[in-house]
Design a protein that fits this description.
This protein is of the alpha/beta class and 292 residues long. 36% of the residues lie in helices and 18% in strands. The strands form 4 sheets. It has an 8-stranded parallel beta barrel with strand order 3-4-5-6-7-8-11-14, surrounded by 6 helices. Helix 2 links the parallel strand 3 and strand 4. It is globular. Keywords: Cytoplasm, Lipopolysaccharide biosynthesis, Transferase. It is an enzyme of class 2 (transferase).
Amino acid sequence: MPDSLLDLRRRIGHRVFNNFIPAMSFLIQNIEIGGEQPFYILGPCALEQEDFAWEMARSLKEICERVGVPFLFKASYDKANRTSVTSFRGPGVREGCRILAEIGKELGVPVVTDVHTAEEAAIAAEYIELLQIPAFLCRQTDLLEACAKTGRPVNIKKGQFLAPWDTANIADKMRSFGCDNFMLCERGTSFGYNNLVVDMRGLYWMKQEGFPVVFDATHSVQRPGGLGGTTGGDGELAPILANAAMAVGIDGVFMEVHKDPAHALSDGPNQIPLAQIEATLAKLQAIRQAVS
């Protein structure tokens, strides 16, 4: 870490990053999180319709089998932080988790979804292998504790308002609640109005704390509220940022994928077209092999 940042951490009382915590890994079904091989969290932003979710999950499983990569299927049952009150949200926690659980069981893949309250965490944990905490809620202690106490692994999105080293405090909370099976996910930092930027140095610094680090390529290219009533973005840049993150050495990549992003009901400008995801994954694997 540059001296100026190291001095800053010392002044504000944080641990120095040079005091590394040993790296941890854990399993979700047969997928190792934090191991030698990268994993992929893939799926549409929202559970638009049940048939659509099944179609996407089957397609992604076939693609990942051809490329030879482990994947977890992701979709959100409730997009609770939409820009507009009129925007599509989803089927809700119980119906959404039912759909995801049936997909996971039938296809033999772990499933991932966002939770927004302690009550939702308890419900989702009955069905879902990996709970995910949205970036805006990453410092909500009660939600972190509720997820930790379900016994499920947890993916915590780093808030757009946090510095990389601030994630150490989130990790401390999870460990204090008895949860070691968690990962932190980078998804960009606020960069003025309606824009995000990714500091690739942050991926390295976050990894020094010893927990697995995931890079969310598609949310990192958002332009929050950039279209007025909806979020805009630069989806064509998502694979490029994913390439850079893979070269840094992150543990996993999160990418939202849609068969027709232009007609997606949520976050269309940032999702990767299904037709492009196989080539994207193959390139990411080649980069990992080159830098390993």
